[in-house]
Design a protein that fits this description.
The structure holds 2 protein chains of 2 kinds. By secondary structure, chain A is mainly beta. In chain A, about 0% of the residues lie in helices and about 50% in strands. Chain A contains no helices and 11 strands. The radius of gyration of chain A is 14 Å and the shape is globular. Chain B is mainly beta. Chain B contains no helices and 12 strands. Classes of the chains: A mainly beta, B mainly beta. Chains A and B meet through strand 5, strand 9 and strand 10 of A and strand 5, strand 6, strand 10 and strand 11 of B.
Chain lengths: ~120, ~120
């Protein structure tokens, strides 16, 4: 167990709807990253949040958006859902110091989203 | 753009034997980090081992060790004394140094451990 939690565990939506996924970071961590993992593939980076601001984004359209709260928890919002959005959504938390540098990312158990 | 390639979609090993999973990557950066993550059927991604590119010494964590060949851009994982609990999908991942350290993953290698 990593201390990173995600909710819900499973979700079923229909095309065109909107969805919000939630992530609580591990104690002491200030950075949250979100990944999309399609079936049989490696995770793809969506974006990262640090100090409540987006700190890097992958090749995902603007209908994928996020938030980070003062307690470092985070939300991933997806608007106008498409069938191809069906995937496992993983969040990962890490700690970034003032000098930057790379810290290991620890993953939550994921949210399985199915879009019908 | 950085890429990570895992050329072995599936591997199998007998319990108590040793297996090596391959990974190559492409980057023009000099400062970066490499990781192996394990994803069992429960789907939680678990860190196995981490290697800093500036360190020449190969990382080791108990039965897990890596062979890091920086010039060849190769980063293989060796699992010794394989156990049934090692069965999982294994992902190799790359992260640049600096302030934005997104992970780039390979497609994974499915490891089966036979009793």
């Amino acid at each position: 167990e990593t201390g990173v939690t995600q909710s819900p565990t499973h979700l079923i939506k229909t095309r065109g709807q909107q969805v919000t996924l939630r992530c609580s970071s591990q104690s002491g961590h200030n950075t949250v990253s979100w990944y999309q993992q399609a079936l049989g593939q490696g995770p793809q980076f969506i974006f990262q949040y640090y100090r409540e601001e987006e700190n890097g984004r992958g090749n995902f359209p603007p209908r994928f958006s996020g938030l980070q709260f003062p307690n470092y928890s985070s939300e991933l919002n997806v608007n106008a859902l498409e069938l191809d959005d069906s995937a496992l959504y993983l969040c990962a938390s890490s700690r970034k110091g003032l000098a930057g540098g790379s810290e290991t990312q620890y993953f939550g158990p994921g949210t399985r989203l199915l879009v019908l | 753009a950085q890429t990570v390639t895992q050329s072995q979609p599936e591997m199998s090993v007998q319990e108590a034997e040793t297996v090596t999973l391959s990974c190559t990557y492409d980057t023009s950066e000099s400062d970066y980090y490499l990781f192996w993550y394990k994803q069992p059927p429960s789907r939680q991604m678990i860190l196995v081992i981490r290697q800093e590119a500036y360190k020449q010494q190969n990382a080791t964590e108990n039965r897990f060790s890596v062979n890091f060949q920086k010039a060849a851009k190769s980063f293989s994982l060796k699992i010794s004394d394989s156990q049934l609990g090692d069965a999982a999908m294994y992902f190799c991942a790359y992260s640049p140094g600096g302030s934005n350290y997104k992970l780039t993953f390979g497609k994974g290698t499915l490891l089966t451990v036979n009793p």
